[in-house]
Amino acid sequence: MTWKNAMRRITLVAVTAAAVLGATAGQTLAAPPPSDVQPQVVGGVRAAQGEFPWMVRLSMGCGGAMYTERLVLTAAHCVGRTGRDTSITATMGVVDLQDPNRTTVRSDYVYRSPGYPNGDDWALVRLSRAVDVPTLAVANTTAYDNGMFTVAGWGAAVEGGGQQRYLRKAQVPFISDSQCREAYGQLIPAEEICAGNWDDGGVDTCQGDSGGPMFRRDNAGEWVQVGIVSWGYGCARPENPGVYAQTSYFAPAIAAAAADLT
Signal sequence: where (predicted)? Predict the structure, then answer.
């Protein structure tokens, strides 16, 4: 199994995270997962400036999305334990991480789901100040846990590749829990949602996309987050879809934690 930080889903230009961000390696679970599980966006295209304005790049080599004007929703496996943390830099407002108009803000606190590492792969990073950036709503119903999803991130564009300077995006179709369990017996159906091209692969998140959002349009035509990039075997392999923390399941807990951090 590969976590998507430092390796997994959306693959972009072959620029390492260190070169682009000066990032340190992404953090992992207490017991490291097998080395073949990775996250980044593979098989996608470059996103347009302003297309996904709530996207965030975190300096440990993960992605995230603005949940409130001061909180970034990301994956639990990207961060350390709950508590004061000023080590993370969040970059936002741009698709090009070297854009001089980018906004960068340091963290001051991290909240990691208390259920992690036994599932519950979500966390909130509180920034040291509020930012004037749009937020991404989190799905609190399973009504949107199907169909075609969009993923975006600065992760690798190919399995084992470098993380990217420019934000990339791709579309991935929903994979049912029953089909996903054919690939991953350890799937937690209530907490995880799968997406990808089952037969042919070729499109996926990849290393460096961990913590980033998977999203789609709701009935009002607005973007809503349905998943958090979590893990998978390799990147864009046939019959090995991406696995995402299912936000409809965690929405109440995320909202409660966010209220305490306000």
Answer: 1-30
